Structures are given as C-alpha cells and as structure tokens.
Amino acid sequence: MIIKSPFADVSIPVIPFTSFLFQNAHHYPDKAALIDGPTGRTITYSQLVGAIRAVAAGLHARGFGKGDVFAIYSPNLPEYAIAFHAVASLGGIVTTMNPLYTVDEIAQQIEDSRARYLLTIPQFVEKALAAKAKTRIEEVFVFGEAEGATPFAALMHAGPVPDVTIDPREDLIALPYSSGTTGLPKGVMLTHYNLVANILQMGVSVDFKDDDTMIGILPFYHIYGMVVVMNFMLYVGGTVVTMPQFDLENFLKYMQQYRITRACLVPPIILALAKHPIVDQYDLSTLRQIFSGAAPLSAELQSAASARLKCTVVQGYGLTETSPVTHATPNDPAAVRAGSVGPAVPNTEVLVVDPETQQPLEARQEGEIWLRGPQVMKGYLNNPAATASMIDADGWLHTGDIGYVDADGYLYVVDRLKELIKYKGMQVAPAELEGVLLRHEAIADAAVIGVRDEEAGELPKAFVVLKPGYELSADDVMTFVGGNVAPHKKIRRVEFVTQIPKSPSGKILRRLLIDKERAAQIK
C-alpha cells in the first residue's frame, strides 16, 4: 500500500538553489540574517547577499568554477552561509566535514570528493594543513587569521561574477557524507533541484516565519542543520543565532538573550531541557516550538519537554539521502501525535514493506520504510553499487529503518533494521526500551543493544547513565522495564556507564557498544 502525503503536491521550479533562496531578500535588507551567539556579530540580509557575491568573485578569480569541490571543515559561524552560497552560485559543490574529524578522516573525504580548497577555523588549521600535505588541496582558507592559511576575508573581491549555466536537476550543490544503511561513509550527491524541492516541501508542513529567531546549534555540516536550520530559515527571512559547540548553560543563555522562538534540536538536548534543573533558571517564554529530528524521540520525552517548556514539541524524519525531510508534524497541538514523526511532506510517497519478502504491508504493520520523491539524492559519489542497493529501479529509496504508518498516514519509526534484537525469534526494538528506561526518574540516559546468547540468540542489554545523587541496582532497572513491556522485551543485562556514545547529530553509536561487548565476550 503506497501512502501519499495528505498535502497537495507543490510546484517545484527548475532554478539554481541560491537564486531561489534569496529571491525575496531585497524586501528586508537591514534585517539580521545570521548572528554569532557568543559575540553578537550580525550579518544582515543585504550584507549576506553582498558577501556571497564578493566571495564568489574571489573564488572565480582563483579559477574555481562549475563542478569544482570546496570543503568546509568548521563549526557553526555566520560566515558558513557565505561560503556555502558563494560556492553554489558558481556551480561549485560544497562538501562538509565533521569538526571532530581526524587528519586521516579529513584527507579521506578530500580525496574521495576531489576537493580543491579547504576552509576551516584557526583552532583547526594544524589538522587542516596536515591533511593538505596528504591530498590534492591547493589552498587552505581560514575564518580569521592563522599561520599557513589564507584569511577567508581575502576572498572578498570586487571583480565580476560569471553568469554560470546550472542544470538544477543534474548539477550538484552539496556533497555531505553518510554511511547509508551500512558500510563506510559515502558522498551523497544532492542537486540544486533536490534542495529547492525540499525547502518548498517543508514550507507546507513546517511553519517557520520571517519573524522567527532560530537557535543554530545543529551542525551545519550535517544535512539537518544545513538545510532545515541554515537554509530554510534564510528562505523564509528569519534569523539564525549560531553556536559553534553545545554547552547547556550557554545554550540556555542564548535562548534567553536572543529571545529564540524556534529550536531545531536532537533528543539528547531535548532530554536535558525536560529534566535538567538548571533550565528553570532561564526565561524561555518566547520559545514557540521545538522540532526534533535525526534520532527517535520517545513519546514520553516529547510530552515531558512540551509540558515543562510550555511549547509545542514535534518530530520530523528524513535522511541525508533525502535532502533531508520526508516527514514533519505540523506546528499545531491538535496535529501532534506523541512518538510520531508526522505525515509525509508534499510530493512524497511512502511504502512499508516486509524486510524478508519486500512485499507491501498495511497500516500499523511494522516493516522497512521506503521513500520516493523529488528530494531523493542523485546517488552516491563514485559508488554505483551502493546507489543501486539504496535506490531500486522504481525509484524507491530503502531507508533501513523499521516503522509503521497509522490509518491517517502518520509515520512511527521504531528502529533501524540492522539494530533489531532477535530474542527467541521475536523482534525487540532498542529504541522502544530506551524510551521506557528514560521514564525512570533516576536515569539520565540509556542505550540498548542485543548481546549474543546461546539459548535465546540475543538478549537485550541496557547501558544506563544515572543522574547525580541517585542509586539503582541492575535488578531495579530490569524490574522497572519488565513492568512496562511484554515478557520477550525485558532487559536481561544491565551495565552502568558514565556516558552513552553518540554522533554529533544525536544518534546513539550502538555499533561502538556492540563491538565493545563482543570484545569482552571473547576475553
């Protein structure tokens, strides 16, 4: 059964992304587009458009042009948007990197993407130069100044910007890296048309407005921060307050100081907002909405955060490979269904299939989620085999996520296909058990994996982080979970830890826990 969006299709113009994004910027030239949270440094829309043109001219003068790749290795700063769109306006491609990458990881992405230039910050210049020595990078640029790198300001040029012919359906604009459903990171080829489509699709379901101020804590190198925070807010004419790294006190300080109205977040931050006592020391009364994505948010945590902060908390869903948004819950309390990521955005089709037979399932039957729409990537860079395994001949993208759709088209994401625990042949979803664990007043965070067992096949094991001042035994944890789930879903092992390993986007790095567990069993 193919599930279509409840919203009418939108018309998607075939135009370059930067031209599309700033088509209305001349209506509010003096309005703040981007603000650096720590310093208050502000870039207006007029300054932003002018700086994009000037940097594009500077890049053009250096011989950078259509099809060339420019790497950004930086935390969130207002100038990130300038660099991104200067490259895009020339028909270039931006590949974005995690600021926590090692030299070898930087070098690997540079070589795979064939980037010509690398942009970073002074604190990362040493690693950037070390990566340059191993790769084809021609020049390292830096926000500010640092020895061995060219100041980003040097790219500001009064010269001409060429009139580049861009084919939006075919020409790439962004090349973020993703592991997909499995394997090593791969370059995700996103076109101008992909991003234009996703902005317009979100515009129907997500009601960000020109009077909104967004906290820019989600990393811009990640597709969620890149498109939903940075670019979508610039499209609607709002303001983004950037943060280079997360710190709860500073986060709350900026939320209060800049009177933030919207916050696109990930579950670990929402957990802190729902449970940490320091939150009560700050005035967050201007906050109208929290939009959660990148990882599952339990119904209990969603409701707890909404009640404490007195704002709407909604969820969305997508992948790097879908630019990213495929589902979003409208910002209407009546439309919120706790635990659901909402209905599909316009122009998007959904299919839930049996993982074994790949036959379509009906409403409320759990299976692998498949997606189809104009936001689906062109493919993986230099990897036709991985592309073919991700997108089938009919255009369906196989997400590797398990979920179900209710009778009204709302999607519920249960877990990853490869992370499901098989207990005596029955499926146990780690995310469900993690949601139960987080209901306990003494538990600050938790992760669940399957551990090998000769009799059962796999047993659910919980890694638990306790709140300061609380004590629990393993039996306490198992009894608590056992009282809230079916017998086959009970936690059978518990290990207390100080921290759950997570990616910068908030996803639990379950593979690290699994590898650690298997290594311990070998010993």
In terms of topology, how is this protein built?
Elements: E1 3-4, H1 17-21, E2 32-36, E3 42-44, H2 45-61, E4 69-72, H3 79-89, E5 93-96, H4 103-113, E6 115-120, H5 125-134, E7 139-142, E8 150-151, E9 172-174, E10 177-178, E11 186-191, H6 192-205, E12 213-216, H7 223-236, E13 239-242, H8 248-257, E14 262-265, H9 267-275, E15 289-292, H10 299-309, E16 312-318, E17 325-328, E18 349-353, E19 367-372, E20 379-380, H11 384-390, E21 397-405, E22 411-416, E23 421-423, E24 426-428, H12 430-437, E25 443-453, E26 457-466, H13 474-482, E27 493-496, H14 510-522
Parallel strand pairs: 2-13, 4-5, 4-6, 6-7, 7-8, 12-13, 12-14, 14-15, 15-16, 26-27
Antiparallel strand pairs: 1-18, 2-3, 9-11, 10-11, 11-20, 16-17, 18-19, 19-21, 21-22, 23-24, 25-26
Helix pairs in contact: 2-3, 4-5, 6-7, 9-10
The CATH topology annotation of the largest domain reads as Rossmann fold
Relative strand content = 15-25%
The CATH homology group name of the largest domain = ANL, N-terminal domain
Distance from N terminus to C terminus (CA atoms, Å) equals 48 Å
**From the alpha-carbon coordinates, what is the Rg to the nearest angstrom?**
23 Å
Number of DSSP strands?
A: 27
Biggest sheet architecture: 8 strands, mixed
Described by the principal axes of the CA atoms, the overall outline is globular
- Count of domains: 2
CATH class of the largest domain: Alpha Beta
Q: What is the share of helical residues?
A: 25-40%
Q: Which architecture name of the largest domain does CATH use? A: 3-Layer(aba) Sandwich
In the sheet with the most strands, the strands line up as: 3-2-13-12-14-15-16-17
pLDDT averaged over residues:
94
**Main structural class:** alpha/beta
Uncertain segments are none
